[in-house]
Amino acid sequence: MVKFSKELEAQLIPEWKDAFVNYWQLKKHVKKIKLSRKLNLHSQDSHTDFGLSIFDPIRDVVKKISSGICNASGKPENIQVSTDTPKGEDEHEEEEKEVHDDQLSSEEDEVKAFFEDLDEELKKVNQFYKTKESEFLERGEILNKQLQILLDLKQVLADRRQKIQMSKVGAGILPWSHSPSGRGSDYSDSSTEYVTSGSPRETSQTDDVIAALEKNGINFIGSATRSKTKKGKPKMAMRVDIPAIAPARSISAVTAMLWEDLVNNPKKGHGEFINRKKIQCAEKMIRGALVELYRGLGLVKTYSSLNMMAFVKILKKFDKVSHQQASAGYLYAVKRSHFISSDKVVRLMDEVESLFTKHFANDDRKKAMKFLRPQQRKESHMVTFLVGLFTGSFVTLFSVYSILANMCGMFTPRADAAYMETVYSIFSMFALLSLHLFMYGCNLFMWKGTRINRNFIFEFQPTTALKYRDAFLICTCLMTTVVGAMCSLTLLICPLNIFYRSTRYCFIRVIRNIVCSPFYKVLMVDVFMADQLTSQIPLLRHLESSACYFFSGSFGTHRYEICKSGKLYRELAYVISFAPYYWRAMQCARRWFDEYDLNHLANLGKYVSALVAAGARITYARQPTTFWMIIVLVTSLVATVYQLYWDFVKDWELLNPRSKNPWLRDNLILKKKSIYYMSIVLNFVLRVSWVETVIRFKHVGVVELRLLEFFLASLEVIRRGHWNFYRLENEHLNNVGKYRAFKTVPLPFHETDSDG
């Protein structure tokens, strides 16, 4: 049977861990009470372990006289009774009595401390529950209001479109198109029908929209019936705010910023415009907000039930140890507490279910529950079997290849360099990719073991998120099927629901967001993936070599030097080396534009310095002069110091001199501090691997040089996998510190105060 402490640790919400009952501290109090009782029983037994004594009658007389005097005076007094007992025996008895009294008082103090801590924990749980309950109730009211606005707008625009079509049919004019939507929404088409103030028909439509919105207490700019301040300005206005998460929306957002005064200026008589596309986006946003609200309410419900169970378990332990029946009275007080007696969260969950079922699932509750309560994907033993199968196959095939290559003399200095130059690029490309996937699988395994909520940080769906066994399977399968490497791109874009389609499409979407930076809104998963690309520049260079080798026809003539000596190839080397740093810098620029945080500009400087250092190293490899060696030393040194500072202080938030953990941070997930110190040293050593480009070993053959390059590239991939764990650990601890356990979805309709 699993202990409740382990069950609680496995089920509690990691981001709210500090707000839960400190069950482990209360268990320590119970153990102290148990230890005190054992000492008391042991001391009592020690008085009777030696049998009867000739001094027992005298002791009884002394005890009776002492108790009688204490009862008469109301307080204990020290009475000296002269007896024939030896002096040493009396001193021994007094010492035993003092020790026994101290043990009794110690047990009482432990019980008192236990209930004091229990009261504090109950107060803490109630306070946190009230805070979250009020937060979700307020969020629910806002969402209800937003949903009502959306329904009013949809109804008004649908009625107006129907009237316009009927008027056209009555006048003998057929509409351009009349096809029902396939998505169950009246506004899934991309035609533009604006609600503006202009012609009489549009004015009437605008009045209908304004009337619908004024029922919810919101007024449009340009409305004739809006409430005004003393200066004649409207008190409240409404705008539809669609986040600029895509290039088209980014351009629209910039345009809206430039023309906001012109479009929304009440003096010019223009009203806010709303088209069907905005209504469709608003509907999607509200649906996502309802799903997140329901998930958050489920977390609050879990928080309540787990804490109640913790109180029950710890009080049962106390009763068992102290041989008292104190749990019944205290549990009655716990059940009357707010976090148990309040049913507002449950009623709000039922309301969200009914609203979602009615408006977003066509009254199909089963369909609604697929969104609100998605089922977790079951783990299959077949994945573990396939990982072992492909691992064994790869080891066997690689061993056979190594033996045959050694027997044929392919790796000897006399061997033809053409084979190494052509095979090395292809093999290294897949080997580095597989190594990176293997490190990611190790990250997933560690994040799961330490309960770091990666799905919440990366905004992954729990039902389709990749697990560590899946990552290991992809890694071993890729290395085993290197022979069919040209089929990998086809598999990546395959539309069939095979081989982790959701993960493949998510990967393509993230790569698209990175390449198109800064036009897409930057998410944590985009930042994380772009950082991985900065460590895979050798892989991108090998991809360039392989593409050139096959597309230029060199594989038929075996003239690998065509790609090495081409001018375009050499220029592309700079582009490929610069691209990951450029994408990452553009992400920092976009985040600064969205958040106005100067830390993002400082982070941009880090990638610019790395970009300059990478360009200097490429030039030095082609022109090994003293001047370029000095440039490489200076730029690489600046970039390395910059990167190390950002790794330790910003990304990991270590090296804090005021931390309770010397030169680390206050909160640590791993129990052994030495692991963090070793990780700091390891990251420092792997960061300075660029020194090899300056040393330039002499008398090194082609085979040894290529193996050395592959080894250094592998070290960078290992460093990145090692960096990934601590980066996500820090992000998770930031979420824990701010009690962020669910995503806050932005809402489409916003009220703005015109008085500013």
Calculate Rg over CA atoms. 36 Å
What's the end-to-end separation, in Å? Answer: 62 Å
Q: Return the average pLDDT rounded to an integer.
A: 76
State the low-pLDDT regions, or none: 48-52, 69-89, 97-101, 174-199, 219-237, 250-272, 483-487
Helix content: 55-70%
Largest sheet descriptor:
2 strands, antiparallel
Determine the number of helices (DSSP H or I, runs of at least 4 residues): 27
How would the global form be characterised? Answer: globular
Instruction: Tell me the total number of β-strands.
Output: 2
Q: Which structural category fits the helices and strands?
A: mainly alpha
Q: Report strand order across the widest sheet.
A: 1-2
> In what range is the share of β-strand residues?
under 5%
One letter per element, helices H and strands E, the order comes to: HHHHHEHHHHHHHHHHHHHHHHHHHHHHE
Domain EXS: 564-756
Family: Belongs to the SYG1 (TC 2.A.94) family.
Protein name: Phosphate transporter PHO1
Domain SPX: 2-332
